[in-house]
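Case study 2.
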Amino acid sequence: MLLYLALPVMLIIAGILSYWYSTSLNQAVMQAKLNLSQTADTISAKVNEETQLAVRTTEIMALAQQNGLFGDREASINFVRAVLKMNPSFVGASFGYEPNADNQDQAYINAPSLKEGVYVNQTGRFLPYWHRDFNDSERLLLEPLVDMESSLYYEGVRQQFLRDGNTETMITEPYVYEGRMLVEQSSPIIINDKFVGMASVDRALADITEFLQTIKQQLKIDVLLLSQRDNVIATTLNHSGLKTKAILDTDYASIAKQLKLQGQEREILSANDPFDSGVFYFDKAKVATGNWTVIVRRSEADIIGPIQAQFKPLLAAAFASVLLVFLLFWYFINRTTKRINIAIKSVEQLANGDLSIHVQKYMTQNDELGTMFRSFERLIKASKDIDQVCSAIAAGDFSKTVSKRGPYDRLSDSINLMSSKRHEAEQALVEQTIELRRTQQELVEAEKMSSLGSLVSGVAHEVNTPLGVCVTATSHLREMLIETKNKVASGSLSKTQFSEFISEVDLSCDILLKNMQRAAGLISSFKRVAVDQTTEELRNLYISSYLNEVQKSLYHTLKATPVDITISAKEPELEVYSDPGALAQIFTNLVMNSIIHGFKNGSQKGQISVHIDYSDSVCIHYQDNGRGMTEEAEKKVFDPFYTTNRAGGGSGLGMNIVYNLVVHRLKGQIFIKEKQSTGVYFFIQFPLTLPN
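Prediction:
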C-alpha cells in the first residue's frame, strides 16, 4: 500500500518542482525588468528634482533683480552669497550685468576690494561670482566673472533672448572643472523688455554619482547618465574613457541607438554587453528638466543564478521528503482519532465564549464532526448577539444588553459594563460642554466690558484736562471781573485798565471755547464708539473716518507710547452698511495686541498701518513693524485662551474675539499674510453690505 502511495507522491513532487522552477524563473525575470524600469524612473526623478531646484533658484534670482534688486549692488552680492550658502549642492552662484546696465560702472572702476574679493571687472561692470573653495567647501570666495562674451552661460542666454525673446532658463552641457563634473543653469534678467543681465548657479554632479553608486551596491544595477547631447555625465561602469564622451562614440553606440529608436515607448532591451560578457537587460528613462537620459542595465546571470542555486537543494529535499511522508502517514493515522476528540473538547470550550468559527453545512452529521459543527453554530449565534448590542451602543442606544452564555463568559459582562459606563460618560460630557460654552461666553463678555471700561477710563482722563483748563480760565476771569467792578464803583478805572480787562476777557473766552470744543469732541467720539460697542445695530459709515473716531477714544492709551497709527483708504472711499461695534472692537483688540506683544507694552517705537481697500467687498490691511510672531503663535493665534503673555495677565481671548467678530458678526474672513519684513500682517475681508 505504501508503494502505491510512493509513486504518485514522487510524480506530484516532481511536477510541483518543475512548475515552481519555471514559474519562479519567469517571475524573477519579470520582476527584475519591472525593478529595472522603476529604478530608471527613480534615478530620473532624483536627477530631475536636483535640476529643478537649480532652475527654480536661478529664476528666483532673476525675479528678485526684476522686482527691485537690480542696481542695488551690495544687496545683490549678499543675495547671491545667501543662495550659495543655503544650497550645498551648488558650487557657484552669480549675477552678471550688461555693461553699465545700472549706470553705476563709472563709480566702481577704482572702488576698493571687499574683504572676500572683488566683484567688478576693470571697467566697473557688475559681475559678482561667489563660489566654494575647492579645498574647503564651507569657505565662500568672491571674484568677478570672466569670458562673458564667449560663454554659453551668459552669451548663450543673451542671444537666446535677442533672437526670439525666449526667457527660459538655459542648462549648459556638463563639463569637468578642477576635477569635478559641473553644470550651469542661467536665467535672463529682463527689465522693460530689455536684456540687462543674467542670474546663474553652478551645480556639482558629485551627489548624483554617489547616488548612482548606492543604486549599484543595493540593487546590482549599473547606470549611465547622458546629457541633452548624449554625452556621458556619470556612470557606475568601471570602464575608462566613458565619462564626458558622446555615447555614440563608445562601444555602447548600438545599444544606445536601439533604446533611442523606441521613442516614448518603454521596452526592456536584452543584448550582449560590449565590455562584460553575458546577456544584460537595458532600459532608459528621460529626465524632464534638461532633457537628460538615464540608461540602466542588469546582468541576466544575477537574476537567474539565485533561482538555479535554490533548485538543487530543493530537489534533494524533495526525495528525502518522500521517505518522511511514509513515516508521517503511519504516525498521523494513529493520531487522527485522538486529535479529533481533542478538537471536540476545544470547540466546546470556544462555544462558551472564547472564539467563533462557522461551518453550517456539516451540522446534520451524527459523528464527532457533527458535534463540533453544532458547537460552532452556538458560537456564531452568540457572536451575532454581541454584534447587535455593540452596534446599538455605537449608535447611542444603551438599552440593549448581552445575555451571559456560560460560567466562563466574561465578554458579556465587559460589554454590558462598557455600555453603562459610556452612557454615563456621554451624559457627563454633554453637561460639561454646556457649562464650558457658558463660561467661555462669560469670559468673552468680560473681555468686551474690560475693553469698554478701559475706554471710559481713558476718555474720562482726557476730558478732565480741558475741563481743568476751563475751570482755571473761569476762575481767572471771575477775579478780573470783580477787580474791574470795584474800580468802576470807586471811579478809579482808567481807559488802559479797561482795555486790558477786555483783552483778558477775550483771551479767556478763546481758551474756554477751544477747551470746551475739545472736551465736546472727545465726549462725542466716546459716545459714538461706546454706543456702538454696547449695541449690535447696523448703520451706514465710512470705515476710515470711523476708525479715526475709535483712535481718538484710545488717545489716552496711545499717547503714552511711541507708536504711530496711520489710517488710510482707497479714494473715493465707499460708504458701507455694517456693524460699527464689531469694527471698533476688532480695531481696538488689534491695536492693543500690537502694543502689548509687538512693541513690548508700548516701550518700543513702532508704526501701525491700516489701509482700507474696496473691490466686491471691504478689504482691511493691518500691519505693524513690531517683533512679529513665532511659527507656533501664527498657527494658534485665533485659538481661545491661547496667549504668550499669561504671566502678564493675558486671557488669550483678544484675537479669538477678533476672529469671531469677523467671521460671525461681519460674515467675513481673517488670516495672516506673509510679510517681507518684521511685524505682523492681518488681512480682513467682509461684505460691503451686511444683511439685517
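The mean pLDDT is 79.
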